[in-house]
What does this fold into?
Amino acid sequence: MNDIPDAPELLAIARSTLLDKLLPRVPEELRYDALMIANAMAIAARENTAGDTAILAEVVRLAALLKEQCEPRAGAELRSARSDLNRRLAAHIRAGRFDDRDRTALLDHLAQTAAGELAVSNPRALEA
Amino acid sequence: MNLDAADTRARLESFLRAAAGADAVHIRHLYRLSGGAVQENWALDADMAGGTQPGPHQWVLRTDAAARVAASLGRSDEFHILQFAHAAGLHAPEPLWLCRDLAVTGREFFVMQRLPGIASGHRVTRDAALVPDRARLACELAENLARLHAIHPPQSKLSFLATMHARDNIAHYRQYLDQLADAHPALEWGLRWCEVHAPDREETTFIHRDYRTGNYLVHEGRLAGVLDWEFAAFGNPLEDVGWIFAKCWRFAGKALPAGGIAEPADFLVPYRLASGRTVTPEALVYWQVMAHVRWAIIALQQAQRHLSGVERSLELALTGRIVAELEYEIIALTR
It folds into this structure.
């Protein structure tokens, strides 16, 4: 076992080296690229830190919305279960089955899911 | 693609010489302008000898980036839209020459007049010195859009344009979502909401479909040009109003609904006076929801361009990660 410093720690120090040491010497026309690299590293680090917690919660909510049993899963199985549930939910939404009844529960779920993704991709958008 | 390679440059010079009927054309500078994941814009400074316009010129060469968005028009159609829009006095840059001969640069391109000013949405919404009178800029944008929306089909010069109303858009976006491996329930919700609330009757006018902060030029505080006509169509004029109001296009000016630069009335009042259309609060919300759905669909397409390997690009990859923000706004608007 030799995984210390871990992925978020490596990404954090790599990112601050990029921003503090390299960026001041990056030519103007490459500045935007450098900032995009820093942003990608920050997203990857937050995603790694978050792990499967948010996906697990999403799957539990999806199963409740679709009134299905929720089996405990992890890793690739968890992701595949999420894909299946989302596909079925999407079809129900399109067919109008959430227009009235369960509309509030659906919107709560969708807002929580988007907020969880935003916490990874752009936490500042949640502060606004 | 590097247009500035010596052999490409020489072919470009001979194309320009022939197109302009000049004795000689010398390219002084040719460099890629920032922005444009869908199209590439190159600044082209050239000296022309003889012909109708001898002397120094500042042009823009516009060509497809490798990653074209399916919904956008080709360069030839865009060239014809620019000819039409420029003649109609809609602040479009004057298009000069279209080249469909792939032997010149490897792709279709056209050359247009380079207008002065700054387009960057971040700068226009952040830097108060660029826009000393925001209400006046909003008014100019609204009046220009009203002129654009005064053009009704049929137009013989725009016969290639599609007509897209609310329900056509919904069907089109669903068709795209159905091609993807993963479902997107929040976008499905936005589309279902748009379907349930779709207007019974819709006007049909010429619409720009990308009329927003970041796509117009501001020079000395005034509207100096409208860019990126590649999505133009016939459709509901309110779609353009919802697009420029949508939160996703406000950049640093999130609290200013009209393009991140002004209050709603600064835009809607001059738009009403110039067009005769009153944009109801309900219609404004409706077309903002549609705007977020549409931008999310385009963002998914751009991410796919990267993932499929058609064009590997960090910018396209990161665009995929803005979808959650758009979904969040769709939910907030439809609660």
About this structure: The first helix of chain B runs from residue 6 to 20.
